[in-house]
Amino acid sequence: MEATPSLACANKCVFCWRHHTNPVGKNWQWKMDDPLEIVNSAIDQHTKMIKQMKGVPGVTQERLTEGLSPRHCALSLVGEPIMYPEINKLVDELHRRQISTFLVTNAQFPEKIKMLKPVTQLYVSVDAATKDSLKAIDRPLFGDFWERFIDSLKSLKEKQQRTVYRLTLVKGWNTEDVDAYFNLFKIGQPDFIEIKGVTYCGSSATSKLTMENVPWHSDVKAFSEALALKSKGEYEVACEHVHSCCVLLAKTEKFKVNGQWFTWIDYESFHDLVASGKPFNSMDYMAATPSWAVYGAQEGGFDPDQSRYRKERHHRSSH
User: Fold this and answer.
1) What are phi and psi of 178, to 5 degrees?
2) Which residue from 152, 184, 275, 316 has the highest number of Cβ atoms inside 10 Å of its Cβ?
3) Longest Cα separation, the chain
4) Residue by residue, what is the 3-state secondary structure of 37-71?
5) Radical SAM core domain: from which residue to which, for each copy (predicted)?
6) What pTM did the predictor assign?
7) Which of 126, 247, 109, 237 is CA-nearest to residue 187?
8) By three-state DSSP, how is residue 219 classified?
9) Hey, what's the torsion of the CAs at 46, 47, 49, 55, to 10 degrees?
10) What share of the chain is helix, strand, coil (3-state, %, to 5)?
11) pLDDT in tens, 205-260
12) Paired sense of beta strands 192-197 and 162-169, if any
C-alpha cells in the first residue's frame, strides 16, 4: 500500500512525478486529519483500487486476494510524510495492524528524523552529492537546505533500525559525482544504498527532463560498482532488480554472513520486536537473500516462482 500523511513538501524536485500540483511549505500549516482516519481511509482506498484489477489480463485470483489485505505500507507516495505532526501515532497504528512501514524523507527535517519512532526501513533521499547540484535538482525552499540535508544524514546515523540512502540517478545531472557521494556515506553510515534510474514522467512546464536523462540499467550498475569500489569493501553490490533499473549496496560487516547476503526482512520478527518495546537493531530482523535476487543472478531480481505477464502490443508498422 502506497500512502502519505502529507501532500506538502519542502522541495520542488525536477523529477517529481506530481509535476508540482501538490502544495509546498516549510512547516505544517494545514488542517490535520486524525492518524486513525488516515490509516482506515488509506486501506479503504487501496482495497477499492485493487478490486478494479479483477479480470485484468495477467492478474491471478491468488494475487488479487493477497492485495486486498496490505501487509506493507510505503509512506512515500508524494510530499514529505515526516512533516505530519502525528507521524509516530500513524506508524504505531500501522504496526498495530501488523503492517510494515517504509518511510521516505527528503532530508530537510533533521529534528523530525530524530523524533521518529522505529520504522521497518527509513530512507533518506540523497538526490545529489554537492550543495550546487542539490539546489539544482531538489530546488529546496529552505535557505539553509544544505545544512539541513547534512544534519538529516547525521540524524539517520543515530537510528538503530534499517536505514537507506536513496539515490535517483538523472543522466547529465548527478551521475558524475562518485567521489562526492562517497564522502556522504560516512556522515550517515546507512545500512543500504539504493541506486535507481530516474523514471520519466512526461514533460511539463515545471520539468525539463526527457528520456535522454533516464540511465540504462548498465549505467546504474557501473555507477553502483564504482561506489562500492570507492568504499574499499565497506559496502558491496548485493542485489539488483533489472526491471526497476535498481541496484542495492549493503554494508558488508552487517549483512554478509559467511559469504551469504542477509538483505531481506523477517517481518514477523520485526513486529514482535516493536511489540516488545525493547531496543532492537537492523540485524535482529534480517533474513537471507534468495539466490535469484543477488547481484549478477541470471534472474535479475525476478522471482522464478512468479510468471511475468507480457502485454500484447499491436503497434502499427511505421512502413
Assistant:
1) -60, -45
2) 152
3) 67
4) HHHHHHHHHHHHHHHCCCCCCCCCHHHHHHHCCCC
5) 1-236
6) 0.89
7) 126
8) helix
9) 150
10) 35, 20, 45
11) 556 667 777 778 889 999 999 999 999 999 999 999 998 889 999 999 999 999 99
12) parallel
* Alpha carbon distance 119, 318 (integer Å): 51
Give per-residue pLDDT as tens, 106-139: 888 899 999 999 999 999 988 778 888 777 766 7
How far, in Å, CA of 214 to CA of 23, rounded? 26
Task: Report how far residue 6's alpha carbon sits from residue 162's, in angstroms, rounded to the nearest whole number.
Answer: 23
Question: What is the rounded CA–CA span in Å between residue 179 and residue 66?
Answer: 43
Q: How many residues does the chain have?
A: 319
Cα 36–chain centre separation? 24
What is the grid cell recorded at 237?
553490490
Closest CA to 163 of 219, 222, 102, 212: 102
CA distance 116 to 270: 16
| 39 vs 67: CA distance, rounded Å | 16
Q: 191 and 254 in contact (C-beta within 8 Å)?
A: yes
> Mean per-residue pLDDT for 272-278?
97
Q: How far is CA 166 from CA 4, 107, 121, 253, in A?
A: 18, 11, 12, 20
DSSP 8-state secondary structure symbol assigned to residue 132: H
* Cell numbers for 57: 489480463
CA atoms of 296 and 27, how far apart (whole Å): 44
Q: Are 110 and 152 in contact (CB under 8 A)?
A: yes
Please report the sign of the dihedral spanned by the C-alpha atoms of residue 4, residue 157, residue 249, residue 198.
positive
Lookup: cell for 32: 490535520
Tell me the CB-side half-sphere exposure of residue 86, using CA atoms within 13 A: 16
Q: Taking a C-beta distance cutoff of 8 angstroms, is the pair 73, 90 a contact?
A: no
What's the pLDDT tens digit per position in 51-60? Answer: 999 999 989 9
Q: Are 213 and 171 in contact (CB under 8 A)?
A: yes
